[in-house]
Amino acid sequence: MKKSTVRIFHLLLLLMLVVGCAKPVFKSKWLKEESPSTFITRFETSKGNFDIEITRAWSPLAADRFYQTVKYRFYNNTLFYRVVPNFVVQWGNNDTVVLQKWKPYKLVDEPVVQSNLRGYLSYARSGKETRGSTLFINLKDNQRLDTVIANGVKGYPPFGKVINGMQVVDSLYAGYEGRTMRALDTLQKNPALFMERFPKLDKINKAYIIR
Q1: Residue 180 three-state SS
Q2: Which DSSP category does 190 fall into?
Q3: At residue 46, what are phi and psi to the nearest 5 degrees?
Q4: CATH class of the structural domain 30-209
Q5: CA distance 132 to 123
Q6: Residue 123 clears pLDDT 90, i.e. is over it
Q7: Measured distance CA(96)–CA(168) in Å, rounded
Q8: Domain boundaries, given as residue ranges, for the chain
């Protein structure tokens, strides 16, 4: 066998191995996985680490989805694209391929059981049954978010709280405030251009369950 043929064979074999070992971005069976009653997730960020404890009883569907997305690395290499001082830190997945796989599977709305206090985690939404991918942490006590009616839905149900590293959350770059929200389409369509406009945004390197 000629050397060039051998090289091609080895390249094809390597490609098959890479494709075969590549982790899928989504499988519908993941949506059937139920979270533990409580669990802790660690976020490793460009400013340091913080840990969030999830309490399923506060919002069971939210806890389950968060468990599924973190377990399958949905939030790895994503941006804190909205940081409004004295209000919230917000993030979601900015990989169009991954996001489109998860996006159709929205959550049924749930009542608010726990208040939106400083350090508490909730899903953002844009209307009825639209929770499922975008999260926010309250930077102060935001009890008005418990009862506010927005887009026909009452309140944002928290389902977890920061138990370690709140100083890291507080330190995330907030200089752009809400201006990034007007450029979210750019984040999806042209991430490089978005980062040129907002280069100081902090990011999540990886998120994973620690116990």
Answers
A1: helix
A2: -
A3: -70, -10
A4: mainly beta
A5: 7
A6: yes
A7: 27
A8: 30-209
Taking only the tens place, the pLDDT of each residue in 25-64 is 889 999 999 999 999 999 999 999 999 999 999 999 999 9
Q: What's residue 4's pLDDT? A: 54
For 24-59, give one letter per residue: b (16+ CB within 10 A) or e.
ebbeeebeeeebeeebebbbbbebeebbbebbbebb
Q: What pLDDT score does 23 carry?
A: 58
For residue 120, pLDDT beyond 60:
yes
In tens, the pLDDT along 145-168 reads 999 999 899 999 999 999 999 999
Cα–Cα nearest to 69, from 49, 98, 90, 96: 98
**Which residue type, as a one-letter code, is found at position 127?**
G
What is the spatial distance between Cα 194 and Cα 211, in angstroms, rounded to a whole number?
Answer: 35
pTM of the full predicted structure?
0.87
Task: Tell me which residue of 156, 73, 67 sits closest to 109, measured CA to CA.
Answer: 156
Q: Beta-carbon neighbour count of residue 187 at 10 Å?
A: 21
Q: Please report, for residues 43, 46, 186, the alpha-carbon distance to residue 193 in angstroms, rounded to integers and kept in the order given.
A: 26, 20, 7
Give 193's Cβ-side CA count (13 Å radius): 8
**Alpha carbon distance 154, 164 (integer Å):** 29
Report how far residue 183's alpha carbon sits from residue 97's, in angstroms, rounded to the nearest whole number. Answer: 19
Nearest to 178 by CA among 80, 83, 89, 79: 83
